[in-house]
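thoughts on my protein:
***
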Amino acid sequence: MRIRALPLLLLTSCTAASTTVTPPSSTPTPQASAARARKLEAATPMRTASSSPFTVSAGWYVTEEHGRLLLEDPERELRITLLEVPGASAERALAEAWKQTRPDFALPVKLSAHPPVQDGWDELIQNTYDTPPREARVVAGFARRKGDTNYVILLDGSDAAMERRGAQAAQVLLGFKSARLAEESFASKTPLPLTAERLQTLESFVEQARQTMKIPGVALAVVQGNRVVYEKGFGVRELGGSKPVTPETLFLIGSTTKSLTTLMMARLVDEGRFGWDTPATQLLPDFALGDPEMTKKLTVQNTVCACTGMPRQDMEMIFESAGFTGEQRIAEMRQMKPTTGIGETYQYSNPMVTAGGYMAAHAAEPKLPLGQAYDRVMQTRVFDALGMKATTFDFARARKQEHASPHGMNFAFDYRVLPLSTEEALIPVRPAGGAWSNVRDMARYVMLELSKGRTPEGKPFVSEANLLARREPQVKINDTMSYGLGLMVGEIHGARVIHHGGNTLGFSSDLFFLPEANVGVVLLTNVQGDGPFRNAVRRKFLEVLFDGQDLAQAKLDFALKNRQEAFAKGVVGLHEQPDMDWIKPLTGSWSNRGLGRVTLHIEGSRAMFDAGEWRSAVGEKRETDGSRRLILLDPPMAGLDLLVQQEAGRTTLVLELPQQRYVFERGDGAAPLAYTPARQ
C-alpha cells in the first residue's frame, strides 16, 4: 500500500517574458478540441490571462484553447490543464473546471486538503481522486483563489510519468499563480543577530515539535560564520531508554553524505586525479549501464548531478545487502537504464552517486577494492583533514562510540526501535548515504562551506572554484530549486539556500546554509519519516532569522493532519490478520533476479515476510477490483505491498513501483550479479 503524496502548492515568485493565453468573453461550452498541440523545442515561459509567467519544459506539448492551456509530457502520459475560473469559492471553482474540461468526470474524492493560507492567497484546496489500483494512475485537482479569480490545475497521469517528469511538472504546479500576489520575501531583509533569546525561540519550537511527532531523539547545531552559536541534544538515543542525545551522539546522516562525497571529488579534482568532465569509463573502464550510449556519455560530474535520467532504484539495496560489496552494487547497474535524457529532468539516483564516489576514490587508490578505497580517501581527504574526528563509515566503530538507535514507523505512526543491523544495507552504497556523524562534526563542514573552502582554523582545504562548482545548478527540481553536485541550490522566499537532507531506514538528517547570511543549520533525528518535522524546523529558523510570518506550527499541524487522513483512506480494505486459507498456499521461498530470495511463513497466528536482512508481519489488502495484496505491517518497510497475481495456473508476487516491476517466482532463484573493476 503506497500512499502517493503530491506536492502542496507552497508558492514562490516567478518573472519572465511569456506567451499569454487570452480568455474568451464567455465560458465555453465543452466540446471536442479542434486545436493542435505544438511541441516546445526549448523551455518556454507561458502564462494565462492574469497569471505570473511559469516555465514549461522543452519537449512538452502545449495546446491553447478557450483560455485554457493543456500541457502534456514528451511521452504524452501526463496531462496538466491550467485555467482561470471566476468565483468566490476555490472548491466550487475546482468542480467547475472539471465540468468545463471533462463533463463526464466522476472519480470520487479520495483526499481533500486545505493548506494554510500564505503568500497573499485567499484560499487553497488540493483534491486527490480515487483511481483503480491496477491503473497505477494519479488524478488530482488544485485551486488557489486570489480575490474573485481561481487558478486551477487539473492533473492526470500514470505513476511512472509523475515520477519520471515530476520535477518538470512541479515547475508548472508551483509557478502558475496570480500576478497580484503579495508573497512573503526575505530577499531584501537583513538577517537578525542570533541572540540567546532568538535561539531559545528556536529551541522551544524544536522540542515542542519533537514531542508532537513522538521523535525519540534530535540533535541540532547552528553555525554563524566561523563559530558554532548553538548546539544541543533533545530526547533520548533509544525509545524507552534514558541515555540522552548530546552534540556528540552519532547518527546515520543518509543522503547528506552525498555532499561530503562531492567534497572529496572536489579535492581530487584539485589534485589533478581527474576533471569534472572526465568520462566515467576512464576511471572505471568496465563500468556500464544498461544503455551503451549513456555509458559512453557519462562523466564524473554526471554521476552526482541527479540529471542523467536514471530513475530512482533503491529496492535492490534494501532487499539484498548482507555481505554485498561495492563491486556487486556496481554490477547491478548494468541492468539499469535511463528513462529520460542527460540534463532533461531531475531524477534522483542513489546507485549513480554510489558509482561516482567509488570511481573517484578508485582514481586515487586503484589497488584497493572499491569500498576500502572510498573509506581511505574519505578518511584522509575529508574527515581527518577537516577535523571531523567522530565521523565514520565503520559500523563497528560507531557501535563503540556514543550513538543513537534507528527507529522505523509502523501503521499507527508510532516509532519502533530497529536492530542496527537493518542499516547495514547502506554499507555497499555508502558514497550515497552511509556516513555516521554528529552535529559537532557536521558543523565544521558547514563552516567550510560558508568560508568557501577554508577550515574553521582558516587553513586552505579545497579550491574555491571546485567547492563552488558543486553549487552550480545542473537540473531544475521545481521553479525555485535546482540540483547541483550532491547539493540542492535555490531560494526559499527569496533567500538563497543550499542544502541536502537524508533518510535511511531509521534515521533522518537535514543540513542547510545561507551563504549571504553566513549561517547554517545541522539537524539529526533517529527516526525515518520525519519530513514534517524537518520542514517545520527549517521554516522556524527562517522566521527567527528574518522575522518571518509565524507559519511553522501551522505548516507542521497541516502536514501531520494531511498524513493521517491519507493513511486512513489508504488502509480501507486492509486486514491486519489475513485469511489463512488464502495465505497458507503462498508460504515458502520466492525469488527475484534483482531482489534475491524472500520467504513467507506462518508463526503462530501471524503470517511473516522475511527478506533475510529484515522481516515483517503481513496483512491482506482486498481491492475494489477483486485483486488481493500482501501488505507489510512492520518497519522498516511498513506499507510495502505485493500483488498476488495468478495467471494460467501460475502464481507470482509482484512488487510494482512507478518505474520498476519486480516479479517474485517460487524457488530460491539465481545468484546475484558480481563485478570486479579493472586494476590500473
The chain has three domains: 19-175, 196-560, 574-666.
